[in-house]
Amino acid sequence: MSTVRSEKEAIVAEVRGKIEAASAVIITEYRGLTVPALADLRTKLRGVGAEYRVYKNTLARFAAREIGIEGLDDLLVGPTAIAFISSKADGSAGDIAGVAKTLRGFSREVPALVIKGGVLGTRTIDADGARALADMPTREQVLAQFAGLLEAPLSQMASLLAAPARDIAYAVQALIDKQGGEAAA
Questions:
Q1: SS3 for 126?
Q2: What do you get for the CA distance between the two ends of the chain, in Å?
Q3: Which end of the chain is more exposed for a tag (fewer CB within 10 A), N or C?
Q4: Every domain of the chain and the residues it spans
């Protein structure tokens, strides 16, 4: 009996560690998904920085309670899988919006996957909150927008600084054209 209990305690500690290390957690119901579909989903989620695992609901509840996360009891019912969003294979941060978009897109392809909710930090979110995450721009999109915001004023400044020299060149060329001759070397 003690080996079974110690195995369960190890699983609770593993789940607790994954939740604590994750920037967010999204909980789904996978009832009706085939093994190849689950493998495909895991591969897609790994690409955006999430690990998709199935744990016993009771053990996941114990782990959440140990951390102090309340409100997961309603989400941890039925065949449940958890997407832990932490980091990508290259070491960069996992993309919360990208994971939510991947899950939403997969649930559109395979309606058997149901997004139940999740955890952001220590706050529980419902299914609507998880769907709202999918509507956010991805990390790459935010970085591109930020780079564009930084680049625009610098580009305008460079254009303004180049304008006087350009205007002088146009004026000289107009004077040469007006006199009907070529520019002297």
A1: strand
A2: 98
A3: C
A4: 2-136, 138-185
